[in-house]
Design a protein that fits this description.
heterodimer, A: alpha/beta, Rossmann fold, globular, B: mainly alpha
Chain lengths: ~525, ~325
């Protein structure tokens, strides 16, 4: 784990003209500004990290650079002259190649076919020359130290090798810039090493690398410069060597270390730590590439925050607890009784319910009424012999609409007509109707307005006070810090540290997120 | 809340073992040649059971009868390989026959030119809607099925006219033989051979397989996805119309009511032949085996005599179900 970029690569970044530039690029979607006045440049042979949290605009910028989206304002510049990429093919022809997180190749076709799709070598009468193609593919892969049977279907290879094949394809199309979007998220450590050595070879060939990853260690290992995006704007450009991790994290989260806001920006009240016996005990939750031995205990009446950067494994931990995600190892127990893992019904029966991150696609059913959305999960309990009387339902719905202060004209109003905050309350009501013991909240206040946010936050406090155990995931630092009695900090799918008592503040959380030990309180 | 299973392939961490590879190979052979193997078995059974089966006359009959659906199924294979479907082929087949018979009044050129032009136009409209307007192939071609059938009725005075073929050259193409093999069979085999070469050895063919394998990946790889999808519907339209006109030449008339349900038997033949309905994998040789298999089943049932054609539908349907079950099981075993 060296913290400096490969030394054998000449540092040309300061002198050479950028190979690809974005100048003042602005992109709006349905009135929402995703990118605003972005300036971004990569030089030949440079490896440039593109950093930012969820919604910062990284993926939109990449899509603009690769021709998937066209900028509403501003321009792209290739080797000093303006270019327009109307579609991905234009960008590829010019020399911008992309390696995606998911391998974007054809699993059923062979390695060689995948590398040369669309530009297969042909013989005199225009038919594909397979022996030439196999030989070319073999030579190409050998250049990067990859030795595989190029006739094998891609699907039969390990994911890391597939990623290499994608990379080989990308650079063999006269690449000037290779954009890598989370290329290591599903690779083994050994495969990551291979990838990095290939990146070294590419840089020596003068190819510019744009590297997107949330893994700090990798960024510092393989990149020399960094551009940090936040809320669709560039907030920092510079050499990584001059940027301590802590600083980088603060830039990404928009929390300057020297300027930590005081308490009171959220509607959370005082938080309590509880010393009751834990209601939920999870041990060794593990799933390849996502979670590694995560363990936690939650007591009734406490709100426990899960801290971590994008991809640290927060949502995955919740999904593991809720039985949504299959686990390789690990156990979840409620009140000492083990819950069958990987089963949502089992988790719900045991009293674990989850409010998913994506309310729209995983939560509410927009065309159904408020009543139907609330009683949906509780229907089996409210029914007798498969039938459920409206009277029974109304009793339940009425209680929750009043208790959670859901603003709807009537229980019959369509949920899609409610505001985001009220939709979220409907979701919470749905799960409360199940009499849960543990409530898992994934970004409960995302996408709802300030007033509703405060209400939801106050509600979380109330529920905890009533004895519910709550796990809170939020990308807003102040929400985690002020809402939680304890914060368990995750990093790369592991528990990094746990903040308790007076240590639950922004400063300690940022230090833990940066994970370089520099701010470790102990 | 549904269970989320992020890319099942993530669990395949290491290189597939030799045993796995061997199994993959067996699975792949069964997928590609299963129909041919079953066809061979059926031919043996039929030869033993029915003395009249293995006669030149009967075999020529089967071959000639199969040549028309084969041409339709060739076009269908291309469409299905891209992950699409073409339900309009039965109606286009009928239109091809009617227009061919009408066109034959001005000679053999008219017999085939008119239907081919119609096939191109219908295919282009459907392909345009699917490829460029992004509409669902099922709906677009279902609309095509209905509209073209209506068109057939319109040009035949609500089906009461059956244009006859009197052009002698057309009749020779439809009914003639060389060395005991019908011209229609030869035409079908030439188209099949061209299709096989195109699929395996042309960039367009590779693009078809890539699009069916993963359309989003194909797009990101810069393949001309829309154009390829457009072209396969045009090819399918032309194949169906040409088959219809050949069928008219064979039967000396453009019957407006032919080809009802032909799209379903063409799809069955393609799927029985080992082409995945989701696209990306399959072969025209498999399609040939699928077409012949359905024809042999029909022929065997005819030989029994006491069985009606409805039994044939039951057997074909049951067969299709078995093939799809086997394919699903095989595909699942490969994914693990």
């Amino acid at each position: 784990m060296s913290s400096s970029p490969d030394q054998t690569v000449p540092d040309t970044s300061a002198i050479a003209q950028p190979v690809l530039e974005a100048r003042g690029v602005t992109k709006r979607f349905a009135g929402v500004t995703a990118l605003s006045g972005i300036d971004f440049a990569v030089r030949p042979g440079e490896s440039h990290a593109l950093m930012g949290e969820n919604g910062a605009g990284k993926s939109t910028l990449i899509k603009v650079l690769t021709g998937v989206h066209q900028p509403d304002d501003g321009e792209l510049v290739w080797e000093g002259s303006p270019v327009k990429f109307a579609r991905p093919l234009d960008a590829q022809r010019r020399g911008v190649s992309t390696i995606y997180q998911e391998v974007n190749l054809i699993p059923l076709m062979s390695v060689a076919q995948n590398i040369y799709l669309g530009r297969e070598p042909r013989n005199r009468i225009g038919l594909i020359d397979y022996s030439q193609m196999f030989a070319d593919a073999r030579t190409l892969l050998t250049t990067y130290g990859i030795d595989i049977d190029v006739k094998r279907p891609l699907r039969s290879l390990a994911l890391g090798v597939q990623q290499m094949v994608a990379l080989a394809r990308a650079v063999s199309i006269n690449a000037g810039v290779v954009i890598m979007d989370e290329p290591t998220s599903s690779l083994e450590a050994r495969e990551v090493d291979t990838l990095f050595s290939v990146i070294g070879i590419l840089r020596r060939q003068g190819i510019a690398i744009v590297y997107v990853s949330h893994r700090m260690d990798e960024i510092y290992r393989v990149c020399e410069r960094v551009t940090v995006l936040r809320d669709g704007r560039v907030v920092h450009v510079g050499d990584l060597a001059d940027l301590p991790r802590m600083e980088l994290v603060s830039l990404m989260l928009g929390r300057s270390v020297a300027n930590v806001k005081g308490r009171g920006v959220t509607a959370f009240g005082e938080t309590r730590e509880s010393d009751a016996p834990p209601v939920l005990v999870a041990t060794d939750l593990s799933r390849k590439h996502q979670l590694e031995g995560v363990g936690l205990e939650i007591r009734p009446g406490e709100v426990v925050g899960l801290g971590g950067l994008l991809g640290a494994g927060r949502s995955e931990t919740l999904k593991a607890l809720a039985g949504v995600m299959q686990l390789d190892r690990g156990t979840v127990a409620v009140d000492g009784k083990q819950v069958r893992s990987g089963s949502v019904p089992a988790a719900i029966r045991a009293g674990i319910v989850m409010l998913p991150e994506d309310r729209k696609s995983e939560g509410i059913i927009p065309n159904l009424s408020v009543r139907d959305n609330i009683v949906l999960a509780a229907l089996p309990r409210l029914s007798r012999a498969g039938f459920s009387s409206t009277k029974n339902q109304d009793a339940v719905v009425d209680v929750f609409m009043r208790r959670l202060r859901i603003k709807a004209s009537s229980p019959d109003q369509q949920v899609s007509e409610l505001s985001g905050g009220n939709q979220q309350k409907v979701m919470i009501a749905r799960w409360l109707a199940m009499n849960p013991k543990v409530l898992l909240l994934d970004e409960p206040t995302r996408g709802i307005d300030v007033g509703a946010k405060a209400e939801v936050q106050a509600l979380i406090d109330e529920l905890a006070a009533e004895g519910l155990a709550i796990v809170l995931v939020s990308s807003e630092v102040e929400e985690v810090v002020e809402g939680s009695a304890r914060v368990i900090v995750l990093r790369d799918g592991r528990v990094e540290t746990e903040l308790t008592g007076a240590d639950v503040d922004e400063e300690h959380l940022l230090a833990a997120l940066a994970g370089d030990g520099s701010g470790d309180p102990k | 809340m549904t269970a989320i299973e992020p890319s099942a392939s993530q669990s395949s961490e290491s290189l597939a073992s030799d045993a796995q590879l061997a199994r993959e190979r067996v699975v792949s052979v069964v997928q590609s040649y299963g129909a041919a193997i079953v066809l061979a078995l059926l031919v043996v059974i039929a030869s033993i059971s029915f003395p009249t089966f293995l006669t030149p006359n009967n075999l020529t009959n089967i071959a000639t009868q199969s040549s028309f659906p084969l041409i339709v199924a060739i076009g269908m294979t291309f469409v299905i390989l891209t992950g699409g479907i073409d339900l309009s082929v039965g109606s286009v087949f009928a239109l091809g026959g009617v227009l061919g018979a009408m066109g034959s009044q001005s000679g053999v050129g008219g017999t085939f030119l008119l239907p081919i032009v119609a096939g191109v136009v219908i295919g282009a409209i459907q392909g345009g809607l699917v490829a460029y307007a992004g509409m669902a192939p099922f709906i677009v071609t279902l609309a095509g099925l209905l509209a073209v059938r209506g068109l057939v009725l319109a040009v035949t005075n609500a089906g009461s006219n059956t244009p006859l073929i009197t052009d002698p050259v057309t009749s020779v193409i439809g009914q003639g033989k060389v060395l005991g093999v019908s011209y229609t069979v030869l035409i079908a085999l030439v188209l099949l051979a061209a299709g096989v070469v195109l699929l395996a050895r042309s960039r367009g063919g590779q693009s078809i397989l890539a699009i069916g394998g993963s359309e989003s990946a194909a797009t990101l790889m810069g393949l001309p996805v829309a154009r390829v999808k457009f072209v396969v519907y045009v090819v399918s339209g032309v194949c169906a119309a040409l088959a219809g006109s050949l069928n008219a030449a064979y039967s000396s008339s453009g019957v407006p009511t032919v080809g009802v349900g032909l799209e379903l038997s063409a799809i069955s033949a393609v799927v029985i032949g080992g082409t995945l309905l989701s696209g990306g994998k399959g072969s025209l040789i498999g399609t040939l085996a699928g077409v012949l298999l359905l024809a042999v089943i029909q022929n065997m049932i005819n030989q029994v005599g006491s069985l009606t054609s409805s039994v044939q539908a039951v057997v074909s349907g049951g067969f299709l179900a078995v093939v799809v079950i086997i394919q699903t099981v095989l595909a699942r075993s490969q994914r693990l």
